[in-house]
Q: What sequence folds into this?
């Protein structure tokens, strides 16, 4: 199995697949430091010539690259050009894949007023990021190999402590009524491994936990667990400015299709996921939350 863009989620996925007995290759520009069980491939998805380093006989592909920056050019390079280069290389070798999974994002949905969203909802992104992701999705789904798209929510987990640290130091701010959707890193990796193992997968799945939640509710819960002051509130404009100018959509994503396929979440909501993270950080006792 090849994980192209073997980063935060890809590394956890590679370890999971290796534990299941698969031969796993992780593609990075600099693969040094990959953990045992993942064989590194030094290549650049934006440089077709470097992809000659790919191993022969790839049976399954996970495309989990990330953009080098928040710009249209960076997103096109990562999610469209890089994917096309990789698929062209595999085709040119005369090889075939039994399954390819593309990790996309809930950013493809432009809904921003708290609407419920599922795989059949209109995907009409408000910005270039969602548009480029949709372009990559189409490239995979209409390509030469069986392709499945997993649209992930906000990913958190070990090593990603910005939200917790903002609560601890009192800088956390939120806007009431802003719904957020998230998934723990281990569930993102687990869901991909699950989709790879399905005999027949749907074209698109939403990769979010079972409980979309208001941003303020999540921050207040973390504050209660660690004994910190509750977050401050702000207006809608400030939320967009804090996100670096990126649109702050408010929607509630459903993951019933993923669960209906047989996947069971290790962290069904932010409480279990952030609870595990707080325990790892030593901010709460081993018995809770």
A:
């Amino acid at each position: 199995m090849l994980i192209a863009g073997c980063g935060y989620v890809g590394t956890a996925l590679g370890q999971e697949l290796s534990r299941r007995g698969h031969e796993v290759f992780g593609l990075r520009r600099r693969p040094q430091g990959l953990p045992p069980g993942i064989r590194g491939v030094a290549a650049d998805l934006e440089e077709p010539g470097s992809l000659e380093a790919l191993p022969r006989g790839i049976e399954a592909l996970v495309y989990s690259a990330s953009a080098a920056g928040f710009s249209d050019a960076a997103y096109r390079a990562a999610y469209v050009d890089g994917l096309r280069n990789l698929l062209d290389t595999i085709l040119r070798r005369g090889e075939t894949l039994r399954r390819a999974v593309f990790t996309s994002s809930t950013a493809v949905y432009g809904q921003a007023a708290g609407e419920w969203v599922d795989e059949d909802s209109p995907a009409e992104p408000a910005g270039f990021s969602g548009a480029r992701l949709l372009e990559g999705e189409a490239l995979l789904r209409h390509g030469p190999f069986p392709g499945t798209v997993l649209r992930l929510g906000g990913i958190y987990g070990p090593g990603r402590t910005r939200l917790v640290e903002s609560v601890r130091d009192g800088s956390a701010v939120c806007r009431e009524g802003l719904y957020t959707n998230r998934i723990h890193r281990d569930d993102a990796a687990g869901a991909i491994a699950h989709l790879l193992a399905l005999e027949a997968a749907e074209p698109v799945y939403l990769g979010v936990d079972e409980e979309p939640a208001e941003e303020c509710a999540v921050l207040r819960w973390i504050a209660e667990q660690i004994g910190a002051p509750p977050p401050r509130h702000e207006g809608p404009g400030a939320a967009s400015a804090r996100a670096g100018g990126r649109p702050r959509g408010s929607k509630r994503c459903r993951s019933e299709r993923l669960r209906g396929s047989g996947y069971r979440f290790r962290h069904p909501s932010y409480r279990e996921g952030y609870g595990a993270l707080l325990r790892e950080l030593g901010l709460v006792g081993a018995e809770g939350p």
Remarks:
- The CA atoms of residues 101 and 162 lie 28 Å apart.
- The first strand starts at residue 2 and ends at 4.
- The first helix runs from residue 8 to 19.
- The chain is about 35% helix and 20% strand.
